[in-house]
Design a protein that fits this description.
The protein is α/β, with parallel strands linked by helices and 402 residues long. The protein has helices spanning 79-86, 91-96, 101-110, 113-128, 145-161, 184-200, 218-230, 247-253, 267-276, 284-289, 298-303, 324-333, 339-345, 348-353, 379-383; strands at residues 3-12, 22-31, 34-40, 52-55, 60-63, 65-67, 132-138, 165-173, 206-211, 236-239, 258-261, 279-282, 308-310, 370-373, 390-395, 398-400. Bound molecules: N-(iminomethyl)-L-glutamic acid (NIG) and fe (iii) ion.
Length: 402
């Protein structure tokens, strides 16, 4: 196995205990796809004989970024709805009139597998250019057994064909498809019955739902979560985005990996998430694009020591953006996270939200996923926006074009 020694880096390891897990003049030894040694350059073991040595001349190195909540696979776009919202229509009104998610469902069903793949690959490459090495991708725009499976298969193909880890999430409980209008409980029965097949086909790593007054009720969400847990699949939830449904506490009762959005999260929801170790996944891009005004309870989450993650939530309706770095900026300016909290939110806490303990920090035995930046200090990643300082990316020990 090839060994590569990366020397003279400013390392933000994000190991616990010190701010940023900082190492002013650090080194990384990579063997195959694994980090074999991480520490101060001056403390390198003297007997190392790497196959190659790379001098980073003081460049900043962080773990590869993890975008742990996206909806990358879909057809069409919703710019006309954006215009309608600018003229005063609300996101909920558009959804209730049959637009919104169902607009994208129609376009997704009409697109071929290759069209879906090409469009999603372009979006994934945009994220990758900013140092993203792991991405979670949800279904939720197919809403039939065949179309949901197709969207999950496209996500899996992205993981095979791009130098990127893809985790897939089944989100059939995203909206009620037209053929089930007025029969939401029947649709949930159907969606529950699809999970075993998705799992047998290797298409699904977790199960999500949209619990809100324009999505599904807590009772319906509970049913899909029971079906997921019976198969051993972990769950996560679009919770408390537009209203407080008690979704976070419900998800926590099912040991959810994460609850996502959370603008309307209650103290009871926070207590339940704390007890279950569920990650709070904040999505500042959707907050911005929908012009929300109710902030997620960041200080209460901190006080309860609930881990906070940040993600792009890329999707055509509430966040059609392609930049995880911009989410760091927004997490700080809109949600008042510190730059270190924001970076931990797209690395170590994002890894936790995906149930992937092998990444998100720079430490021995973890996966060799890291990004090299044209920056002196990691706070700069949250400070600039609209500029991409990513210079090199190593994913699974292999350097790829960023
Ligand atoms: O994360 N809230 C539900 N799902 C997406 C938006 C879906 C859409 O509008 O297409 C979200 O915001
Ligand atoms: Fe989402």
């Amino acid at each position: 196995m090839i060994t590569t020694l990366w020397r003279h880096a400013r390392l933000a390891t994000l190991q616990p205990g010190t701010p940023w897990g900082w190492e002013e003049d650090g080194a990384l030894l990579v063997q195959g796809d694994t980090l074999r040694w991480v520490g101060p350059d001056a403390a390198l073991p003297p007997d190392l004989q790497p196959d190659q040595e790379i001098d980073l001349q003081g460049a900043l190195v962080t773990p590869g970024l993890i975008d742990a909540h996206t909806h990358l696979v879909y057809g069409g776009q919703r710019a006309a709805e954006f215009e309608r919202r600018l003229q005063g229509a609300s996101y909920e009104e558009i959804a209730q009139a049959g637009g919104g998610i169902l607009n994208t469902v129609a376009a997704t069903r009409a697109a071929s597998d290759d069209e879906l793949f090409r469009a999603a690959a372009a979006r994934a490459r945009t994220l990758m250019a900013e140092g993203v090495t792991t991405v979670e991708i949800k279904s939720g725009y197919g809403l039939s057994q065949a179309h949901e499976a197709r969207c999950l298969a496209v996500a899996r193909r992205l993981g095979r064909e791009l130098a990127l880890t893809v985790r897939t999430t089944s989100l059939a409980a995203h909206a009620l498809p037209p053929e089930y209008a007025g029969r939401a409980d029947d649709y949930i029965d159907a969606a529950c019955s699809w999970l075993a097949g998705q799992q047998a086909a290797g298409l699904v790593d977790a199960v999500d739902a949209f619990c809100d007054h324009i999505g599904f009720s807590p009772a319906q969400t509970d049913r899909i979560f029971r079906a997921a847990r019976a198969l051993g699949l972990p769950v996560k939830l679009h919770a408390e985005q537009l209203s407080d449904q008690g979704g976070a506490a419900l998800a926590a009762r099912h040991d959810a990996l994460s609850c996502d959005h959370l603008e309307h999260l209650s103290p009871a929801g926070i207590a339940a998430m704390r007890a279950s170790g569920t990650v709070a996944m904040l999505l500042p891009g959707a907050y911005y694009f929908l012009r929300e005004t109710k902030l997620p309870p960041v200080q209460a989450l901190r006080d309860a020591a609930v881990p906070i993650a940040i993600a792009s939530d890329h999707n055509p309706g509430s966040c059609p953006g392609g930049s995880l770095l911009l989410m760091l900026s927004m997490a700080c300016t809109l949600f008042r996270l510190t730059p270190e909290e924001a970076l931990r939110g797209v690395t170590v806490n994002a890894a936790r939200a995906l149930g992937l303990p092998d990444r998100g920090r720079l430490a021995e035995r973890l996966r060799a996923d890291f990004a090299v930046w044209d920056a002196e200090h990691p706070r700069e990643l949250a400070y600039r926006f609209g500029l991409n300082p990513c210079r090199r990316v190593v994913c699974g020990g292999v350097e790829r074009a960023p």
